[in-house]
């Protein structure tokens, strides 16, 4: 007897949803932000933050927050605020160093006093602006208008926590899933590995808890879902040769098998871009480009610390080229950093995916954004 089965059903996750299905998801689906998406709001400019929050507010009746995402947002909010405060300090330090170099008149005899004073006034304005911004940012630890806006949008549309017994069963399931590398969450297998209490286990299996809460909600309410996440690990995304191809096919299939519904998974920049098409929202190109760069920086440093070849290429580009420059060919770069051409090609594709270079067939690769700074202590130890 010959077995017959539908290829698209058996391997659903590997097929993109057709345009009609995507339109339906955007029209009817629940919009679900992950905790990392909400935490990134503290890293955005005012314009980018307002654009994202206004969009969510325009569709607030369709915004839902899993309990696990809310928990992680509140747990990590103070550390993210403090982290941004340190970034203000670093920027102020850089500006002061530059100011001091201008302020030594013997170094710049070619600058007339009037022009030097204009430069000094500019530095003073920059310092004042940054100091005020830093104070406003630190105030958010106790008086947080971003948290207030999130609360207004979410309202009572937040999920209940799983019961303790349900969590314990999920931890056992998670242990088996992680060992078999079933997404999501298995990249966190070593997180809080020695903590056997409920809190430690909940952190280790946080991605899986949120995923199961989303599935349970979609199943109960018979609704498709738009999930926005800034988790970039391979237990969420299918990657090849440095490029992110799509969310993991296993996630699409599990969601459909469990709920009978469809899901679309986006990073914030892609969500905003698609919202301009499917929701007729107006989001400026500048906002989308800002968020794209903010998204790429953590990924950039993750790869720098993991891959020596990527570090060497990044250090070479940062040292020798600036935004707008055309890069030499792969052979020249390979000789300069002592890596083979295939490794150079793969890492250039990674930089293209992150939005730092532009690769066009038949043309020279162009540096479209300056790379984040790197230092030797970041260089990965594994040769790849």
UniProtKB/TrEMBL annotation:
Cell cycle recorded as keyword: no
Top-level division of the source organism's lineage: Bacteria
HTH gntR-type domain: residues covered: 317-365
Domain PIN like: 31-251
Entry keywords, A to Z: DNA-binding, Transcription, Transcription regulation
A GO MF label: DNA binding
The protein, known as: DUF4935 domain-containing protein
Organism, scientific name: Alteromonas profundi
């Amino acid at each position: 007897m010959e077995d017959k089965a539908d290829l698209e059903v058996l391997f659903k996750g590997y097929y993109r949803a057709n345009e009609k299905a995507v339109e339906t998801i955007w029209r009817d689906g629940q919009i679900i932000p992950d905790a990392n998406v909400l935490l990134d709001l503290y890293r955005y400019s005012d314009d980018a933050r307002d654009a994202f929050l206004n969009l969510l507010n325009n569709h607030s009746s369709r915004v839902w927050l899993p309990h696990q995402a809310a928990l992680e947002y509140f747990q990590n909010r103070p550390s993210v605020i403090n982290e941004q405060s340190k970034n203000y300090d670093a920027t102020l330090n850089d500006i002061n160093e530059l100011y001091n170099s201008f302020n030594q008149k013997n170094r710049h005899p070619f600058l007339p006093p009037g022009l030097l004073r204009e430069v000094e006034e500019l530095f003073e304005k920059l310092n004042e602006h940054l100091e005020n911004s830093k104070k406003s940012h630190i105030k958010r630890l106790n008086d947080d208008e971003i948290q207030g806006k999130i609360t207004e949008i979410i309202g009572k549309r937040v999920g209940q926590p799983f019961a303790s017994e349900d969590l314990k069963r999920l931890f056992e399931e998670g242990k088996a899933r992680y060992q078999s590398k079933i997404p999501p969450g298995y990249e966190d297998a070593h997180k809080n590995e020695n903590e056997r209490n409920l809190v430690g286990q909940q952190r280790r299996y946080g991605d899986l808890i949120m995923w199961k809460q989303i599935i349970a909600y979609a199943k109960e309410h018979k609704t498709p879902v738009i999930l926005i996440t800034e988790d970039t690990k391979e237990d969420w995304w299918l990657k090849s040769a440095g490029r992110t191809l799509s969310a993991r096919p296993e996630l699409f299939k599990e969601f459909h098998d469990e709920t009978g519904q469809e899901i679309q998974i986006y990073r914030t920049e892609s969500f905003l871009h698609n919202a301009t098409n499917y929701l007729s929202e107006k989001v400026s190109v500048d906002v989308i480009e800002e968020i794209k760069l903010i998204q790429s920086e953590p990924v950039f440093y993750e790869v720098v610390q993991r891959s020596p070849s990527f570090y060497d290429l990044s250090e070479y580009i940062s040292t020798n080229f600036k935004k707008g420059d055309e890069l030499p060919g792969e052979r020249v770069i390979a000789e300069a950093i002592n890596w083979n051409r295939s490794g150079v090609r793969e890492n250039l594709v990674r930089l293209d995916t992150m939005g730092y270079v532009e690769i066009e067939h038949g043309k020279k690769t162009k540096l479209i954004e300056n790379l984040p700074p790197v230092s030797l202590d970041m260089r990965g130890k594994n040769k790849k």
